[in-house]
Amino acid sequence: MGKHFSNAGESREDEGRHVSVPSGSEPDDARVDAPVAGMGDGGAGEKPPANWFLPNPTGGSDEPRGRGHGRHPHGHHRRRVVAIVACVIVALVVALGASLALTARTAKADAEQAVAALEQARDAVSNGDSSALKEAASTASDSAQGVQSALSGPQWTIASLVPSYGQDVTTARSLAGVLVDLSDNVLSPLASNAESTDLKALVSDGSVNVDGVKALVGVLDQAAPALQRSAQTVDGFPQAHVSQLASAIDKAKDKIDTANSVVSRLSDLAPYLPTMLGDGGQTKTYLLVAQNNSEIRATGGFPGSMGIITVTDGQISVGDFTTIVGQRGKEFQLTEDEAVTFGAAMGVSPGNLNSTPNFERAGDLLAQAYEAYVGTHVDGTIAVDPVFLQSLLKLTGGVTASDGTVVDGSNAAEELLSKVYWRYGNDNASEDAFFAEVAGAAFKQVMGNLGKAGASNLAEVIDSSASERRLQVWMADSDQEKAIEKAGLAGEVSGDTSNPVLGVYFNDDTWAKMDWYLSTKTEVGQATTNSDGTVSYQVTTTVGNTITEDEAKSAPAYISGGNPAKADVSTMIINCFLIAPAGGNITDVTLNGATSGDAIMLYGHAGVRQSLSLDAQQSATLKYTVTVPKEATGDLTVDQTPLGNVSLQQ
C-alpha cells in the first residue's frame, strides 16, 4: 500500500498497521500496538508477548490496544496472577508457621527434659549416686542434641531474619549449642568417671583414694574450658524479647556462672592434690590450728590448740593436739608495717602471730613457731574454727566427750566457745583437755565418715567457710600456695583493684574469752563517682558488747578478762583495723561523731586503727569514707574477721 498524509488528523496505513498521528506530530513507532491473537486484524495465529500482563515498560497505558479506536482492558488477567501469587505466599507462610510451631514444641520438650536431666545429675553428684549420674548424663545428651536438631532447620534460619524477634531465634539456637557443649564436655566425662564424684569411693576410713583424685583432675581438665566457654556465651546474650526465653537465659546464667566459678577455682588446685596427699609414697605433714573466736584475732581467733596431720599415699593420720601459746624465748621476724600496726609483741607470743588478717603471713609464722618450739617441720598450715567444725559434723555426725558432752552439727560452736568456760570456770587445765579431746575426736569422726556426705554438700561447706575465713590454708610450696589462693582458701588481703574489698578486722585486747558476746555490723552506702573517676562509699561499722551486767558479774575471770585497762568487769576492749581496698584509701573517720582513728599502712594498703572500750550493752559507731581506684569495675565488698556467735555478725 502507498502512504497517504493529511494535514489535519493525519493517518497512515502501511501493510496492515494503522497509526493515528496527532496533528503537528511526527509518527512514533514506539506507540505502535501489535494486535492480540483473536483481536483485530493481527491474525489468529499470533501469540501475545510473554509479559503481556505486566505494566507497559515504556510508561504508557497498561491496557492493550487493538486496531482503530477500540480499547480492550485485560487488568483482570493481571489481578488473577497476583491473586495466585498471593495465595502461594500465604500457603508458604502457613506452612512455615506450622513447621516452626511443630519444631518449637519439639525443642521446648527436649529443652525441658535436658534441664531436668541436668538437675538430676546435680542431685546424683550430691548423693554420690554414680548410676543415676550416668542415666542423667545420657538423657541430657539425647535431649540437648534434640534441641539443637529441632532449631537447626532452614525454617529457623528464615525466622532469624525477622526484625527484633529474629535475634531471639539466634539466641535460642546458641543456647542449644551451650546445652550440647555442657552435655558432651562436662556431664559425659563426669559420668564416665562417676566414681570420682562419689565421696564414699574417694574418702573412707581416714584415707583418700589418690587414683580417684587423679581421675577427677582429668574430668576437671575437660570440664573447665567447656564451662568457661558456656559462661562467656550465655553472659554475652542480648536481652530477649520473649519473656520465656529471657527467664530461661537468666536461670542458665546463674547456674552456669556458679558452676564455672567453682570448677575454675578447683581446676587450678586439683593438679596439686595428688602431691599434697603424699602420692608416690611421700609423707606430707600439716599443722592443724583450731582458732578460738571467743578471743578474737584478725584471722579468726586465738590459736590455742594445734595438732599434726600426716598423709602418705592418701592415708591420713592425726596426732595429739597440744598448745604452744605459752611458750617464749623465740622471736619471729615481722615486717615493719606489721610491727607498727600490731605491736612488737606479735613476733614474741605465738598466741599473737595471727593478729594480722593476712593468713599467707599468719600461716607461715605459726608454722615457724611450731617448728621452733616442737621441732616438727610442716608443709603447710590449716586453720579452722568451731563454726566450720559444726558444719562438718552436721554432715558426718557428732562426737561425745568423756565428760558426756555431745558436740555435733547443732551446737559445736556454742559448746566450744561459750559453755565450756561456764562449765569449767577458771580450770584452764580441764578446758584445754576438753578442747584437745573434742578436736581430735571430731577430726577423726569427720575423716572416717566424710563419705556419708554428698560431694556438692561438702563443696558448699568448704566454699562458704573459706569465703567467711573459717577455713584458711597456707602451703610452704609457692606454686601450691598460688593454687590455694586461686581456689579461695588462702585468707589473703585482696590486692585486686578491679573488685575492691574493704577489710574490717578485730583483735581482742581484753585478755579473755568474752568475744562470744561481740557483735559487728558493716553497712556500705551508695557509690558516688568523683571528678577524677574514683568512686567513694560512705561506710558505717557498728561494734557492740552484748553481755549483760548480771552475766559479767557472774562470769568466771577466764571470760571477763584481766586487762587492767578495763573500766569494770563487763568491759570489752577491741582493736579494730579498717584496711582500704587495693589502690584506695579511707578518710573522714569518726567514732560516735568525733574525728578519730590512727592512720596505718599494711602490705601496701592504707588503713585506720581504732581501739574500742565497750561496757555491757554498749556499742560504738565508726563512720568513714572508702574511695576505690577508677580501675575498679565491681562494687565494694567487705571482708571481715569471723565471729563465733554468727547471729551477732552482719
From TrEMBL:
Transmembrane intervals: 81-102
Name listed for the protein in its UniProt record: DUF4012 domain-containing protein
Pfam families: DUF4012
UniProtKB keywords: Membrane, Transmembrane, Transmembrane helix
Organism: Olsenella porci
UniProt cross-references to InterPro entries, sorted A to Z: DUF4012
Ranges for region Disordered: 1-75
Superkingdom per UniProt: Bacteria
